[in-house]
Amino acid sequence: VQLVESGGGLVQAGGSLRLSCVASGITFSANSMGWYRQAPGKEREPVAVRYSGGSIYYAAPVKGRFTISRDNAQNTLYLQMNNLKSEDTAMYYCKTWPPGKNPLFAGSWGQGTQVTVSS
For residue 64, what pLDDT band results from cuts at 50, 70 and 90? Predict the structure, then answer.
């Protein structure tokens, strides 16, 4: 399994970024896929998840600002981030896990892409 993230960068508060995660070595359309983030000194936390059954989860701080989507034909997961805030600054990671598995104990991670929001 390989996950490659891109799209991070430096943006001013109120700006937008779109993160991409290209997956290989998995049955992309079957797996759950999610975006997580980790800020300095904090634990890694889920930001947005699209489950294999089709349901979507958003963390409360990003609801209404972030949108997760996937292109099964391109094996790519996206995270559209609008109205970015300084507290969104973190390393963002892509994760995938097979259907029926608990993401706490299973899955694969990408290498991460840094998002920095200046106020």
Answer: very high
Beta bridge partners of 115: 9, 90
Cα(26)–Cα(80) distance, integer angstroms: 23
The residue ranges of DSSP E strands in the chain, in sequence order, are: 2-6, 9-12, 17-24, 32-38, 45-50, 56-58, 66-71, 76-81, 90-97, 108-109, 113-118
Question: Which pLDDT does position 29 carry in this prediction?
Answer: 86
Distances in Å between the alpha carbon of 60 and those of 37, 46, 57, 70?
Answer: 14, 10, 9, 21
Mean pLDDT of the region 44-71: 96
Percent of the chain with pLDDT over 70: 100
Local structure of 66: helix, strand or coil: strand
**Residue 93 neighbours by CB distance under 10 Å:** 22
Distance CA 79, CA 119 (A): 21
